[in-house]
Amino acid sequence: METLWIAYNKNNGKFYVVDSINHMIKIFDKNFKLLKTLDSLGEKKGKFNYLTHIFIDREGNFYVTDSMNFRVQFFSEDGKFLGQVGRMGKGDGYLERPKGICVDTFGHIYVVDGLQGSVQIFDKNDRFLMAFGVDGNLPGQFNLASGIFCDNKNYIYVVNTLNRRVQILKYVRGLN
Predict the structure, then answer these.
(1) Domain 4-170 - what CATH class?
(2) Does the pLDDT of residue 97 top 80, yes or no?
(3) Strands 128-132 and 14-19
(4) pTM here?
(5) Residue 89, helix vs strand vs coil
(6) CB count, 10 Å around CB of 23?
C-alpha cells in the first residue's frame, strides 16, 4: 500500500506528491502532467528513505520529512537541493521519529518528533533554536504528535493523535 502526501505551490501552480513507499517526490503541473521525479533511496543529500510529510513555504521552496534518515530536507520549487536539518538521536537538535513539518514567516523550520513528544525548531543552516512540548496530556504536552501547520500569522497547529486534539500555539518573536 502506497502512502502519499500532497502539497500545492500557489506560486507556480504545481503539485508536489510524496510517495513514501517508493522514496520519491513527483512534481506535476496544474493539469497533472508529470514534470519531474526526484527519487533515489539512500542517505546522501537529496536521497530519501521513507519520506512522509511535505510543506511549501512562502517563497515556493518545499520541505520533506525524510523519516528514516531522521532529517528534513528542503528544495527549490524545481527540485534543487537547498539544505537539511536534524540528525538521528535523542534530545535537542536530534530526531527519533520526525513527522510533520512547517515553516513560519521568519523562516524557522518546525519539526514534530512523535517519539520525543516535542516540536523542534531549526534555522535553515541546521542550527537548533529551541524545542517545546513533552510527553503527556496537559496543555503544551503531546502524546504521539503527528502533524503540524504554520499559518501566515505564525500560529502553530500541532496534531496530537493519542490525545485526540489539535493544539494551537503562537510564535512571538523576541525583542533581540
Answers:
(1) mainly beta
(2) yes
(3) unpaired
(4) 0.90
(5) coil
(6) 20
**Shortest CA distance to 110 belongs to which of 68, 44, 160, 154?**
154
C-alpha cell at 131: 524545542
Query: Largest Cα–Cα distance in the chain?
Result: 49
Q: Which long-range contacts (CB under 8 A, 24 or more apart) does 72-75 make?
A: 72/98, 72/101, 72/109, 72/111, 72/122, 73/45, 73/46, 73/48, 74/109, 74/124, 75/38
Q: How far, CA to CA in Å, does 148 sit from each of 81, 90, 102, 113, 120?
A: 23, 20, 6, 10, 11
Query: In this predicted model, what pLDDT tens digit does every residue of 45-72 receive, in sequence order?
Result: 999 999 999 999 999 999 999 999 999 9
The cell numbers describing 82, all together, are: 537547498
